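Consider the following assembly input.
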Amino acid sequence: MTTANSNTPELLKNVLVTGGAGYIGSHVIYTLLRTHKYKVISIDNYHNSFPAALTRVSSLALSELKESSPEPSAQDIDSTVIDVHECDLINPTAVRSIFSSYASKGGIWGVIHIAAYKAVGESSEIPLTYYANNVAATISLLQIMQEFHCTRLIYSSSATVYGVPPDIPIKEETRREGDSVYGRTKVMCELIIEDFCDSIMNDGETNPFQAISLRYFNPAGAHPSGYIGEHPRGRPENLLPLLAHMAVGTVTDPVLKVFGNDYPTADGTCVRDYLHILDLAAGHVIALQALEEGSELNAKVFAGSTSSNGKFKAYNLGKGHGMSVMQIVDAMRKATGHDYKTEVIGRRRGDVPELIADPALARAELGFDAPRDLETMCRDLWNWQVKNPTGYE
Amino acid sequence: MTTANSNTPELLKNVLVTGGAGYIGSHVIYTLLRTHKYKVISIDNYHNSFPAALTRVSSLALSELKESSPEPSAQDIDSTVIDVHECDLINPTAVRSIFSSYASKGGIWGVIHIAAYKAVGESSEIPLTYYANNVAATISLLQIMQEFHCTRLIYSSSATVYGVPPDIPIKEETRREGDSVYGRTKVMCELIIEDFCDSIMNDGETNPFQAISLRYFNPAGAHPSGYIGEHPRGRPENLLPLLAHMAVGTVTDPVLKVFGNDYPTADGTCVRDYLHILDLAAGHVIALQALEEGSELNAKVFAGSTSSNGKFKAYNLGKGHGMSVMQIVDAMRKATGHDYKTEVIGRRRGDVPELIADPALARAELGFDAPRDLETMCRDLWNWQVKNPTGYE
């Protein structure tokens, strides 16, 4: 084992983030930049995101760096600059040429694959677009990674792979069963990645490919600076952004429609496991570090790999606590001062009463924790919304 | 309803067959040509097939036509000519241009999508190639069909979608669970097709797309003329072709290795449901006819559609009778006169003891039957092998 001399810093590792400009992508990139260990390359087609997010992430990281170290090194400054590529993942030629352009710069060390279409309702209307953008694009990305001997992948999965879970809290070993087109695209991608990890190389060697699938519960909030946050194109689909938009006045609904209050939960409304976006982002950085061969973390994580040849592991990223729709409304009422009116209407097709992670595995093996509380999530969300009533536009 | 005047024949319907030159494709095309109702368009990349198969199918159909009608019409003769395209389904530009070239000729009426990689063992070695060729190619084909308003699909599925079936004989409603990479590609394609059938169009109209998935059990035999048959590239993977090659001398193994004789079956060896390739092919033609809107068959088939918006239906194509490895060896011994020696070795990973179709649904709704017996399958296979010891080469 070599120890880096503090005067000759280790080379930055090239990490490709797909969907880098999105809500999750931008916070993941911010968290990566803060480590000053990675050169971040973003691929995004800006279908549901904005290039401005990347500019802001970059200046945020640079300003924090200058605060902490008045004379940062050139390498440190370089580590705050993002290589930005506008590119569609379903275009293999474009993706291949990006991989190719880093070949002479040490290659791409690892990929964090976040890009995907994610609206459950829309997925049932345009399923082929979802299968092409989520599944076919992932197959193509994996093929290109294999061509370029890029062997480390963090995959953005979701609690949606559990469908209607048989038990709460949900353990990672729960059977996977997509309950919507979107959900099925996530299950299929996990299966494909797992099969790839499992495959035997031509030369009979073990596949060096390693993948960690992160199953997100409900990310919320924003960076406390209010520089970056969630900007859904069109009307917000999710509860927290919708409440923020109602409070700031960009959604003018007089009442919030609550879909059912007769679920078998404490107050009858649906319960979800919310975690702060920066905690979620931190999970990605830990997972990426776990792909470092020879490290203690690597050994720990893949000791229980479900893949027989290569290395595949899935982790829940959640707090392990549930919040009901009504609790969320109350928390946002406190954070915003807005007097939300609610109206209970019928249940919405496809809604599951309760989705709560069992976070034990991620805690034990990755040391992952999601300490920020609901109050912080609401405060940071509101700060972002007030500073950017129309988001990045 | 209009009745076609016998003097002015109905226009031939353009039917695209993917994987048209393969073992199943060539027999399906032969059976289509015999109806003189279709203009057949073949797409194949000849990865596991030979262009010669299509030439032979065409002359076979023409010679049979001339035997039955000494002065066939120009339209009848045209119906024996296959439009042959060498094309890879994973190349959307090439596929799109083929669809485009028929736009002025009435468009493509329906698609029989057979092309796929199919070796279970290989699929675990090169999973990404399987996912790309089987799953991504199917997504792309469906997208192109949608662009060109082509709304009728017959999909080549397989008994492999049942994995290790919980009950024998296997009903279509059995849960789907791929037990190999190959099996998972088939399950995923069925799910994707079903979701597409289920989707609501932009204009709120019902999706006019109709699909029938045919779940093959074990096709065997050849056309009795010996003109067309199965020509696996490399060493045959399946039992019957292997036995035929051993008898003809192109495989020189002194003994047949039998993988396990301690299964819970009558003689302890694995049991499969073999059906004659021409019976299987006939099933495709009936299924294609069932996609004719307004027909009695169409109404019958989709009355029990599992899709809530469009029309999706899956049928087993099998005889409903099982044959053990030892019974197959005996039948081939009779057909070939070859004195097979067998040696029982250990079970093979992934083998299921028994796979037998419940053929009741296909019989009741499609009127499908598989009358040809094992003796006929072995005789026709042997006839093909003797006339073509090295297949199409």
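The two ends of chain A are 48 Å apart (CA to CA). Ask yourself how this observation constrains the way the partners meet.
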